[in-house]
Amino acid sequence: MVIQRKRAFDILKTLADSQHVHPLLFRYSYRRRNPGSFTSDSLMDLTLDLPCRCPRCGEGIFKMKSNWKTTKMLGLMMLANFLIYIAVEVSRSYGQGQDINKRRRLTTKKFWKKPESSPAFWNREQERLDDIYFLPLANGSEAPRDFRGIPRWLNHMSSCKPDSRVTTEIEDFKSLPQRFQDFLLYMGCRSYPLIMDAPKVCSEPPYLLLAVKSIAPHFDRRQAIRESWGRAGIFDGERIATVFLLGTTAATDHFPDFSDMVKHEAALYGDVLQWDYRDTFFNLTLKEVLFLEWFGSHCASAKYVFKCDDDVFVNTQHMLAYLGNFSVSKTKEIFIGDVITNAGPHRTRHLKYYIPESLFRGIYPPYAGGGGYLYSGSLGLRLRMISRLVTLYPIDDVFTGMCLKRLGLVPEKHMGFKTFDIEEKHRENPCAYKSLILVHPRSPQDMIKIWSWINDPKAKCCIKTTLDTKGAMPSSKCK
Fold first, then answer.
1. CB 305 within 8 A of CB 374
2. Which of 399, 391, 379, 398 lies closest to 130 in space, CA to CA?
3. Out of 3.40.50.720, 3.50.50.60, 3.90.550.50, 3.90.800.10, which CATH number does the structure's domain 194-418 have?
4. Per residue in 82-130, pLDDT tens?
5. Which of 419, 417, 373 is nearest to 399 (CA)?
6. Which residue among 151, 251, 356, 452 is least packed, with the fewest CB closer than 10 Å?
7. CA angle 327, 333, 336 (to 5 degrees)
8. pLDDT of residue 176 exceeding 50
9. Which interval of the chain is the signal sequence (predicted)?
10. Radius of gyration of the chain from its Cα atoms, rounded to whole angstroms
11. In what helix (H) or strand (E) does residue 31 lie, and over which residues does it extend?
12. Which residue from 178, 179, 57, 168 is spatially nearest to 121, judged by alpha carbons?
């Protein structure tokens, strides 16, 4: 069949050449003169009429079978397509012009700019942590599963060694006070052995855990707390547990050897937690993270945690009454204390809280004064996890504020926390302590005296209550 069609086409081509006509024109002309000889084997055969002759040149011209309505319809369709094409092109050009103008306004700077590194060492270290582990744990207390590495302070098997690189990364390192040099060299160390444990403190889940920061020589303070506001046991129907948090006092800090006395105290009361690290002011932050680790492993069932110094007086009864006003579910994220806002580092060199610019730059997040603060046990577990991803800072209460910020939380100010004492004229008034939770500072003798005042059944204190919602006059209530 293919051969026959090829032969027919060759014959047509030969005849066309002899008459100087295009083969296709000749084919259609021949088919018109000999109807029935050709079958329709192409779309052109079916749609095109046989060619006619141009009167001027005599050549064949194809014409399509059509009528006036069809021609008119095709013309309208072509015109519509042309108008649509023009509209699309105009709108596209106008849109591109607007995009160009927008891009010109938005990209006044370089598209990709490497973020500038902070000149302060702490800020750079935190930026490095954020780049690797930026996983805020606001919705849970479990550790992120996709750590791309383990922070060196979580590696409990490694011994702590000074980080000599800080001597080259901080320009004025050698001119800093010795306490800063010591802190910076060991800032990456967070794992220290627990040399004195208190395994029975949380054998039964406590309602309130009192965690008191102390140092080895402060035997009198710890004993005064045990005999007053920190007495362990059942109080107002709730179980209270108390632990004292200690490091080791080094001979380099001119302390005598208290190790045997601390061992005897721990054996006698069973409430001492001591880690093998140098107990200094800057290492209070280290004490914070070590306690959080212990809490998560040994006392995670505690409903509330009260963290404080060993030179404060605490009205435990009033604190329990305050917590009793809420359900545990409503206090799941409670963190209250004497909150400090809009604060920053002190730059005066001789001050206790002096921080050099080479160490930290910026504003502190809201934080509760380290004299004492109260938070829920569930929040304590979350603080434990997020603290692992926050660089140690030499001021412990500021560090805790940084951890809260990472969790997206802000501590709540409570007027019952007086970390900067009360007016002098009220300090000897027993009734002044009835509505307070914490007063700082107080000596061991003051603790026992005030505790006896507020627990005297014969004492009558008239305390003015606040205005009610209707604006009525304040009333007096005697206790």
1. yes
2. 391
3. 3.90.550.50
4. 888 887 777 766 655 554 444 455 445 555 555 678 899 999 999 988 8
5. 373
6. 251
7. 95
8. yes
9. none
10. 43
11. helix 23-33
12. 168
Q: Is 154 exposed, middle or buried (0-12, 13-18, 19+ CB in 10 A)?
A: middle
Look up residue 463 and give its amino acid: I
- Strands 272-278 and 367-376, by their bridges, are unpaired
**Quick check: helix, strand or coil at residue 246?**
strand
Q: Which of 297, 309, 299, 316 is nearest to 396 (CA)?
A: 309
Per DSSP, which regions of 52-188 are E strands?
52-53, 60-61
Determine which helix (DSSP H) or strand (DSSP E) holds 239, and give its type and residue range.
strand 238-248
| Residue ranges of domains in the chain | 2-61, 194-418, 424-478
Q: What SS3 class is residue 197?
A: coil
- pTM value is 0.73
Omega within 30 of 0 (cis) for the link into 394? no
Secondary structure of 337-396 in the HEC alphabet?
Answer: EEEECCCCCECCCCCCCECCCCCCCCCCCCEEEEEEEEEEHHHHHHHHHHHCCCCCCCCH
Q: Is 272:198 a contact under the CB 8 Å cutoff?
A: yes
Residue 255: per-residue pLDDT:
94
User: Angle formed by the axes of helices 377-387 and 284-298, to 10°?
Assistant: 120
Element housing 417 (H / E): strand 417-418
- Compute how many other C-beta atoms are within 10 angstroms of the C-beta atom of residue 238: 16
